[in-house]
Backbone:
DNA sequence: AACGGAACCTGAAAGC
DNA sequence: TGCTTTCAGGTTCCGT
């Protein structure tokens, strides 16, 4: 279940697998992942084209193709791009495959919340165009963060999940960043001081950098998967002691999503 | 306009 | 053991 760091690592992997190479075959069976187009249309767009590069913005990916075309992709909750030998058969929940002369790249997605959006003329889908500041691509400091979110009255944790404001932060990164910044997730966003906004911007950057460092590799594991380690400071650690002050971490629900926080060292 | 809640899906873990 | 419930890091849509 990917957020900015996992999508960034996916973009790097896809780039190393595909950039500069020609697509010799593609298979995109009909599924709800493909909307507003047919799988066959995606196959036609891909085959014969060269992959110029892979771009990420927020939780979206863009495969830039020769001739000005692009394939936009979102991983949803359970989407994952992996590479396999061309001779290997379809993986469980495989929704697409892209083959070069010497490798096969597969898209797996059990829950099918992901998306594949063809753009033969390169025109980005509305979801891509609507994305806000990307902390990794655009850089984020207290001032820019404040300009994006400061007037909001909703809880800061909920506002951080709005992709139109800050792109790529999801339920884990929001919790981790607020913990690092020592800010209570329930605080009305507009109550944050300039100093706290600066701390939060640093917290977001630090959490993303930490996640990138610990998760990099050709098969990115998501923390909710069976047997996967939890590399996070507080995510899903309710009931455990705070790593900073040993107070028991609490779990609450905000806008239908779980939030874990330390009631002592995250300031109200 | 903004908000909460349900919906979209499957699979694994926890509960009974 | 096996059935039921809950939960999951995604977005979107609908009613208020």
Residues:
């Amino acid at each position: 279940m990917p957020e900015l760091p996992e999508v960034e690592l996916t973009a790097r992997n896809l780039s190393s697998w595909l950039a500069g190479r020609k697509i010799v075959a593609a298979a995109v069976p009909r599924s709800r992942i493909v909307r507003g187009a047919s799988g066959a249309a995606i196959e036609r767009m891909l085959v014969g084209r060269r992959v110029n590069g892979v771009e990420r913005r927020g939780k979206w990916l863009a495969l830039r193709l020769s001739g000005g075309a692009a394939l936009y992709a979102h991983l949803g909750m359970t989407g994952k791009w992996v590479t396999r030998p061309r001779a290997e058969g379809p993986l469980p929940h495989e929704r697409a495959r892209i083959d070069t002369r010497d490798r096969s790249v597969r898209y797996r997605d059990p829950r099918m919340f992901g998306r594949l959006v063809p753009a033969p003329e390169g025109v980005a889908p509305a979801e891509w165009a609507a994305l806000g500041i990307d902390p990794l691509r655009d850089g984020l400091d207290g001032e820019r963060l404040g300009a994006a979110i400061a007037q909001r009255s909703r809880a800061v944790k909920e506002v951080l999940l709005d992709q139109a404001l800050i792109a790529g932060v999801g339920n884990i990164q929001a919790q981790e960043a607020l913990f690092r910044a020592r800010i209570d997730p329930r605080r009305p966003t507009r109550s944050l001081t300039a100093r706290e906004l600066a701390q939060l911007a640093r917290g977001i950057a630090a959490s993303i950098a930490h996640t990138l460092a610990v998760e990099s590799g050709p098969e990115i594991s998501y923390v909710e998967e069976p047997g996967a380690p939890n590399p996070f400071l507080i995510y899903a650690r309710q009931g455990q002691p705070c790593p900073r002050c040993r107070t028991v971490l609490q779990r609450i629900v905000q806008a239908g999503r779980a939030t874990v926080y330390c009631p002592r060292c995250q300031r109200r």
About this structure: Residues 1-3, 6, 59, 74-79, 111, 113-115, 127, 163, 170-175, 222-224, 235-236, 257-258 of chain A lie near DNA strand C (CB under 10 Å from a C1'). Residues 56 and 62 of chain A are 6 Å apart (CA to CA). Residues 194-215 of chain A form the longest helix (22 residues). The first strand of chain A starts at residue 25 and ends at 27.
